[in-house]
Amino acid sequence: TKQKLWGGRFTGKTDPLMHEFNQSLRYDQRMYAADIAGSIAYAKALTLAGILTKVEENKIVQGLQAVRKEWEDGVFSIQPDDEDIHTANERRLSEIIGPLGGKLHTGRSRNDQVATDMRLWLLGEVKHVTEGLAGLIRVMVERADQEKDILMPGYTHLQRAQPIRWSHLLLSHAFSFHADLQRLQEIIPRISVLPLGCGALAGNPFVVDREFLRKELGFASIAENSLYGVGDRDFIVEFMMWASLAMTHISRMAEDLVIYSTAEFGFVTLSDAYSTGSSIMPQKKNPDSLELLRGKSGRVFGNMAGFLMTLKGLPSTYNKDLQEDKEPLFDALDTVSASFKIAEGVVASMEVHAEKMHAALTMDMLATDLADYLVRKGIPFRETHHISGRAVALAESRKCQLNELTLQDYQGLNDKFAADIHEVFDFEASVERRESIGGTSRKMVARQVEVLRKSLKTM
Ligand code: ARG
């Protein structure tokens, strides 16, 4: 009957629970295409090394293509002794082409094979993730471009601080995501390092041409040390660190929108498509999409931290602990991908209530502008800050707004106050004064839109 690929030195049977415990096929089968691509390249390298004839190579390559087709068509039949995607594909190859299939693994180990598969697979996924994130940013940028007229309170400490453009806030999150997009591109060179040809740990004794393998598989560089090649999983940690940070940004934006969607704020209304109801309270419309985005950031961070714990204290080269790299990575990747799509949908479809945002603006948010007014009349800011603070206190004691104090009131605080003080109490004017790069003026918001649009075109 069938035996395990490594069964030669064994006389005893694997414990059934151990068999389950050991097998990774149920989750690593998603790398089937990368595994086959690696094997096809390796077969070609074996021919160049004189191990296979061209005829043998062709048979192996055709066999591997047939195996790939079975996976694609969903008809690959998993056998009980298939341990992982590598043994499953090799077992099936030999069933299709016969004993010649047994030549493919010459000089190769699952150790350099799995590391190659993981890197190759991740490189492909990074492209999708890049597109997903760029899609989210694009929606935010277009929305920001269209809604530049809308003013809202800007907050620090979640206390009303200064008026800003709604677009300015949206773009602030877009810039965080834009940095994530750059960071993701920056980790690619460290993912794109070829382990194939490192063998089990010590290197390849058949002198396979690793430069050929690198080119065949599209890697940027070659692992220069075979122990490093089979034992390194830092690229997985790094991707999950990246994902954790990106999810932190998703979470912070989600939190803003959760708050803004409360009745107390009423700044935004999520579309029904991204909300759910309550099983008991008929009136409820909950921002579950945003809460899940916020919640899942913890999950991705957990994947990263968990796998880092797996790596800590491992001896050099390959250890089976490394099989634990897959589930956290796959889960992190699935979670960020879905999160970008959901966030994009939420942002694209939510309703923004300009009138509610405007109504939330209060004159005290212009206290800085009031201080700045006196600065322009030559008084040092530290003094004007104090004078403006006294105006705020006076208005508070009178239970009125800053613009309801009389000119005499103001002149009682400082004689530089004049009739033009009414110009201070204008939210639009306040926002427009922030016209240095990075400010919330219309022009500077438009500039941000252009900067992001331009950068997205190059990615
Ligand atoms: N399934 C294994 C993994 O994911 C493949 C490598 C197994 N290597 C070995 N020497 N047992 O890490």
Automatic annotation (TrEMBL):
A Pfam family matched in the record: Lyase_1
Domain Argininosuccinate lyase C-terminal: 365-432
GO cellular component: cytosol
Superkingdom assignment: Eukaryota
Metabolic or biological pathway, per its Swiss-Prot or TrEMBL entry: Amino-acid biosynthesis; L-arginine biosynthesis; L-arginine from L-ornithine and carbamoyl phosphate: step 3/3
EC number assigned by the record: 4.3.2.1
MF GO annotations: argininosuccinate lyase activity
Domain Fumarate lyase N-terminal: 8-302
Reaction(s) the record says it catalyses: 2-(N(omega)-L-arginino)succinate = fumarate + L-arginine
Catalytic class of the enzyme: lyase
An annotated GO BP: L-arginine biosynthetic process via ornithine
PANTHER family: ARGININOSUCCINATE LYASE
Family according to the record: Belongs to the lyase 1 family. Argininosuccinate lyase subfamily.
UniProt protein name: Argininosuccinate lyase
